[in-house]
Hints:
Blueprint: H1 2-18, H2 23-42, H3 46-91, E1 115-116, E2 125-126, E3 144-148, E4 151-155, E5 157-160, H4 164-168, E6 176-184, E7 188-196, E8 204-212, E9 217-223, E10 232-234, E11 246-252, E12 263-273, E13 281-288, E14 294-303
Antiparallel strand pairs: 1-14, 2-5, 3-4, 5-14, 6-13, 7-12, 7-14, 8-9, 8-13, 10-12, 11-12
Helix pairs in contact: 1-2, 1-3, 2-3
Amino acid sequence: xxxxxxxxxxxxxxxxxxxxxxxxGVSLVTLLDAATVRLVEVERPIAHxxxxxxxxxxxxxxxxxxxxxQEAGKEQPQSSRVSRSSMASTQAYTNLPSAPSAAQPAAxxxxxxxxxxxxxxxYQTPASRFDQIEKYPWRDCPRGLQKFGNVPxxxxxxxxxxxxxxxxxxxxFPEQLQGxxxxxxxxxxxxxxxxxxxxxxxxxxxxxxxxxGDGTALTNEIRYGMHVRHWGWxxxxxxxxxxxxxxxxxxxxxxxxRPDRPRLLRFFITEFPNPKQALEVTTIDLFSSKQxxxxxxxxxxxxxxxxxxxxx
Length: 312
């Protein structure tokens, strides 16, 4: 029995130091050493030996429990840092009105006041992949059926067109997307979009072309600063658009933002009037302007004119 006790002490000592218990573990081992030496000196009866063994087992349990608590405590700061980072990205914008709230994605296909176009088969990046993208904040995008700026939207993914800045970084989008099925008459067309990279005010970004049933076409220009700006918005940057028919309709948390340089994520809606309301628009084509900025389109809606409204 005495040999068993003596053999247990080095094991307990090793556990105390390897698990980082430190002074508490050393004190415990010292006490046990003293108890065992006393046992050897006076050769207590077997009942006392059993008590010492019980003490050793209890001490070892305390060391293990203390180690477990220390390990659990180590993970908490990382979770706290994530929360503080997310909060910092929005708290810096103290002079802004509250961001528009996003509804939970709905299953219904109809929202009153407009008619969203189903872009499911045209999205390069479906919304189901947004949460898997870590480099860009698409996981923070509203999705599903939403209503921003009084315009109903069906957000199911993202279409991006070629931009010089992205192409230089290895992110090469297609230069065009043709044949988006519309097959309807409408007074106005509403584009829910944003963009990659800054450009000079008025620089061309993309063209949106209406293809009519009679074979004619109408080209609408999308320009930086007039209809759209970069998706990342830092405090002090210009937010307004120069076209009265274009508005920033949603802004919110950017989970990829740096705590020391908070940046929000933002989206815009542009209303394009349809001068040929009596004709059916069969399809819509998209073309990159092949400039620095890449156009990013998430939803399209047709409806009555002057539907776009943003509360001051």
